[in-house]
């Protein structure tokens, strides 16, 4: 099970509807939320560094301010990660970004309003991850949160949970495994017998389909190997 910490770089997350929504969506056992603040002495910084090492995946979550992070969060990053590359504290850990912004996602491309892609604008973070020996994950972006419909918000909540806890793979099989794990967790917590039977039926159905998919993949692999000898 992946253990994740979400470091929130919003200057006032309690006043942000988007940040509150994300926090509610991330009420998961293996996910911890941490609000970044600059009011730390040396010992507090040391404790934060030691605490971060306990996690498999570190997520920076923030609103985009002038194509970067809010000022106080930049100071927090500089303070906490200073000289970290020298002792390999974070080598091998996964590092991701959850970024929300007020423009359309389609604006981040050549020839459009913002001219550059989000990946291009976030290159400094990719360099940051590389410097510390971390694995840089695909960016999780949220565009115009307050314009999302109810169904889009539900989809966002599931996608966000997967980004925080699912194995770093975008294949269909890994998504099925993640869904099955979540359903198993719900089944353990469920008290109603009827709903429990429904959960178990869905889990069994997913497992059966996954076995069939694995068998199909093995057959395709065998066919490819046989073809290579012809």
Automatic annotation (TrEMBL):
Residues 3-162 form the Flavodoxin-like fold domain. PANTHER family: GLUTATHIONE-REGULATED POTASSIUM-EFFLUX SYSTEM ANCILLARY PROTEIN KEFG. The keyword Ion transport does not apply. One of its GO terms (molecular function) is FMN binding. Keywords: Oxidoreductase. InterPro entries: Flavodoxin_fold, Flavoprotein-like_sf, KefG/KefF. Pfam families: Flavodoxin_2. This is Flavodoxin-like fold domain-containing protein. It comes from the Bacteria.
